[in-house]
Write a structure and sequence with these properties.
single chain, mainly beta, Jelly Rolls, five-stranded antiparallel sheet, globular
């Protein structure tokens, strides 16, 4: 038995309670490099507590739909940004915190060129590319302490379009 989650497009407004959508929406904040480059400035609120920012590369295997969602995780000590290194969409799953456990998850599909930044403490699914390559630059907290909490659902969720 599973419960269902319907995937919807990722928008800044729908995702705001969980983090930031990182994309080139709207006009650039300014033109740089002799006018040949648009700068979309300060698109995410990053936090690292007593740690520091680190950039890692993740190479994840693509997943198919429907997806069986059994677990979500969160990082209480810092934000975590996922920036795809291809123009392929990926699945973003988040859940509100309800007294220290995740509430009903939501699922979003990014548009090509969108990334996300999860705010510290946001319940989220694992990296879920929908096509190869699943290569991402990840900006997150590097530092001491246990910065990972996992929650396994008693009854899995079925995520589908």
């Amino acid at each position: 038995m599973s419960r269902e989650i319907v995937i919807r497009p990722l928008t800044a407004e729908a995702f705001a309670p969980f983090g930031d959508v990182i994309d080139t929406g709207g006009a650039p904040d300014k033109r740089i490099n002799q006018g040949l480059c648009g700068r979309y400035h300060d698109r995410a609120v990053l936090s690292f507590g007593d740690g520091r920012a680190g950039i890692s590369l993740f190479d994840a295997e693509p997943r198919g739909l429907p997806l069986r969602l059994e677990m979500v995780e969160r990082h209480p000590m810092g934000s975590q940004a996922f920036l795809p290194m291809s123009q392929d969409s990926f699945l973003v799953i988040v859940a509100p915190d309800e007294g220290g456990v995740p509430g009903r998850p939501l699922a979003f599909e990014t548009a090509p060129g969108q990334g996300v930044n999860y705010h510290a403490g946001t319940w989220h699914g694992v990296l879920t590319p929908l096509a190869a390559p699943g290569l991402f630059a990840v900006v997150d907290r590097i530092g001491p302490g246990d910065n990972l909490e996992e929650h396994w659902f008693d009854t899995p969720w079925k995520v589908q379009r």
